[in-house]
Fold these 2 entries.
Entry 1:
Amino acid sequence: MAYKYDQICDALKTKIQKGIYAADTSLPPENTLALEYGVSRITIRNALAVLIDEGYVYPVPGKGNFVLSPKNDRYLFSLKPEKILKSGYDRVNLLGSDIIKPTIELVYHLRVAPDSRIIQINWLLFYHDIAVAYDIQIIPYASGMTLWEDDFTYSDFSEVIQHKNALPDYSESVSIEAINAPDTVSEKLSISSDSPVLLISEKVMDDDQPLGMRKLYIRSDYCRLTGVSLLT
Amino acid sequence: MATRIQDIIMNDLLEKIQNRTLTAGEKLPTNNELAKIYQTSAVTVRKSIAALVSKGYLESVERVGTFVKDRDHSSFQIRFSPSLSINEEITGHSVDDVILTLCRIKGSRSEQKSLQYKEILYADSIPIGFHILTVFINGHPDMKTIENRIEQQLKMFMRIIDSFDVKKEVEVTMDSPSHSIQEKLLVDETTPMFCFTLSYLTKNNRPFGKSVYYIAGENIELHGKSVNG
């Protein structure tokens, strides 16, 4: 559904990109914008929140919202496992699923109680019998959930979440890092301890509520992500 | 303020895609047919389609039609630029070299005459990245003049590259840089390194240059979010 603030946001973005609002100058005050677009100040504020979040505008307390000169730095990536492995993969092993206590990191990211339980599902992806990627999927456990291991198929992580929640409307945030592999990971990938690996961390959210997390570790010699610049 | 017809069309198509009235892989009616349905011109329809293509919901296949893109929930919008994504502020750079060379354009067998600039990026006095900028050229450049004007040229290229008239394709790998680059960055083969290869194209998909960045994993992290469906 198209919200009013979305349309205003797009209109302001276009003006910023075309330089109609010059970089490092302040946008007109909220009242003025509200009048100009015929909406309430709250709608304007919602639009501004998106602009701030997406890096078009930065707020200066007491002074207003200032335009950042927009950079062409947004890219569209597909993070499907077959697309981010140089070779693709020809086999997936389900290593197992466990119901465990969350670590401190997971308590923070998933916003669960330290004494709650989470489900962890581990997959190992192979290409020509070489373990190229290790995928850890984590979902908070709610009583009554059954672990149907026989039904598990390796699919998009968000599909796994959907099985549990049947939600059409969720968002995912992702971060991509190059790190030294933790021991649990280097063992599974049969690489030497501390070898460099790519780590893709995904978090699925329903509005503000985390639904699940995923950590995908890929051998550094097998990873390749491709993206195209988004020109809106 | 009146809502533009092209926005109405765009939002209507978007809603149909999101509630699966239009399914993944389905071919949309032609622009002329859509123009009749929405009682507007084909030009307006084309603008709405273009907006949805750039947002990743539709894809146009030349001479065939426009299709609803597969909502696989694996599409992410990720931001990358050295100044933004590197977690230290880039305080300076030193140009390592500028040479005239032959470079292979991605996806083609031919080699193109190019100017290649190599620079080291610093945060305070610590090297945090290595950048090789290749610009395809014609004719015979005067290397003396070029060597005298490196700073201005680099600044100009970097500004062009950031503008919205340039299409960029990025490839992210963990390929190791050469030994000489490793030495300049004070890293070795055990250091997790990112290699970003950016191909620069005009809006008409003509390649005009590329950049390769080597940045240590501890200095950079990419963030993004799903393209909403």
Entry 2:
Amino acid sequence: MQSKMKESDPILEVENLFASTDNLPILKGVSLTVYPGEIHAIMGRNGCGKSTLSKIIAGHPSYNITNGDIKFSGENINSLEPEERAQSGIFLGFQYPIEIPGVSNLEFLRVSTNARRKFLKKEELDTFDFEELVKEKLELVKMDHAFLTRSVNQGFSGGEKKRNEILQMALLEPKIAILDETDSGLDIDALRIVASGIKKISNAQTGIILITHYQRLLDEIEPNYVHVMADGQIIKTGRSELALELEKKGYEWTDNFIK
Amino acid sequence: MVNENLVQDVVKEPYKYGFVTDIETEKIAKGLNEDVIRLISLKKEEPKYLLDFRLRAFKKWQKMKEPDWAEIGYKQIDYQDIIYYSAPKQKEKISSLDEVDPKLLETFDKLGIPLTEQKKLTNVAVDAVFDSVSIATTFREELAEHGVIFCSISEAVKNHSDLIEKYLGSVVPASDNYFAALNSAVFSDGSFVYIPKGVTCPMDLSSYFRINSGDSGQFERTLIIAEESSSVSYLEGCTAPMFDTNTLHAAVVELIALDDASIKYSTVQNWYAGDEEGVGGIFNFVTKRGKCLGKRSKISWSQVETGSAITWKYPSCLLLGEESVGEFYSVALTNNLQQADTGTKMIHIGPKTKSTIVSKGISAGNSINSYRGLVKIGTKAKGSRNYSQCDSMLIGDQASANTFPYIKSQQPNSEIEHEASTCRISEDQLFYLQSRGIEFEEAISMMVSGFCRDVFNQLPMEFAAEADKLLALKLEGSVG
């Protein structure tokens, strides 16, 4: 099955990426290629650069790429604005989704969905059509309609915030989704809901990068590849068994691989 | 700071209303003295009591000092360098709109306020004021059928002198403050509204103030009287051309609500604000006050202040009638080098009076935005309540926001609640919205209109949409 996937072109290619913030180097030569249908897990200690990598792919303005390239569908996106990346199909599920008081969740989701649809040259949805669509997607993450009338993430519990992220992913139908510790702070039931949501949204054309500390998410969504990051580099790559081994032996074991 | 390069790339939308109408005007010479006041009064063929009112005000003004307590700084105004009367030349007596100079109609057309019979707005009656005079008032006959009087204040002086004599200066006395005294001495025109007993005004009433000439001040005066059990919603809009000099605008607005009457007064203020370096723009010194004279009467101010180089304005309520209600909903947005010192006074005099204050200040660029408010509960205002909420939003790191709430209670059996907050649009909030495909500018305007929602909800429908667009426009390129 793997070999069949590789016949298509990669969705995302990160090539020898170096990046810094406030002149502090964070990424020190990361390379990663994701093909359609693949699920990659990135693991590693806090501060190893996992979240930074995800933010840089999404275009966060606080980080500077000092060397290397990020290619999306074969095109270099180093200089694209975050909104352009999102419109073209890059999705970042945040570890700590921020609260935006006063902005209604429903309106936010609609504007966001329409921005993506416009890029795809699909018809933009009015409030009525959008209601229909969002109702269907709410099912996927078992969210109540009442969430839509509140301000974006405001007063949401940790689990509700994460489900709201997956709801956004479902609406935006990205080509690649990077989910940054989407499992953290979730109880078992919420984790299952989120995992099944992710599985239902993704398909043979989607690439997924799961950033996680724990095996339990990977029990629900089996990755094709597991990468271990330390000190701004990917120090080891393996199949799903690597995550299990890591769980047994701990990150100290991987320290041996630091170049 | 936030996405600096992008912001600098954004093309700034020029002020849309900055054009000048080339029209022959009748102006009097610059300067202010008793003769000028007599001349204005003569031109308007005023009765003696009004001339005396003006002259008394002028005497008081001469003894007064320009206030300096507000958080604003500006070059000394030379009151002798201002033209106090400027009017487009027209036929002596205009009996219908067809006789109004087409250039004037075209001007209001361009401002989105068509006046002619064929094109006029269908759901709102408009009084159009150009420099010192009222040009036209629409829907007069229709309103008259309901007994509603809506006309320029000059006409009211001629046709409804009893009401003018009784109420003019009864809410804002000529000696109230420096700018009110100046206005009382030289006011040239403005709007007059009278809603008779038991009448709900069948449509919104609106005045549109246009300053056209660069060297004349605008001193309009508005008087609204709502008799027992009547109600009216009144809207006010204002624009001015772009001049590199400052133009003085000192208006007075007086509202009177009798038993069970209600007045809703909404303003969208978009005077020219000056350029990015702070050159030019309107100096806006305005006194607005409503008197809830009757039992259970209600006066509600809502304002969206986006223009003017300087805004100095405190729409207030005197709550005399038992169980009367005062409200103040405000959004004040400042950008570049604009300065705003605005707020309200809620003076509780009668028992069981209630007031609500919701103020949202947004400061961007290098601007200064201050809320200044007074809540006073007098000895007889037993069982009175006030709720105040003052929120500030900062955009960028050069803008400043102040809140000066003054609270005076002389009545232990009353409640005063005050909440205040300050927030800054954070880079992470912007990134979150952008990472969902929402453009940078739109992300900011979404957050700003979210911040202002409580106030926008109070505005009449079309006004709310306009206000939303106006804020977005004003903020273009402001984050940096």
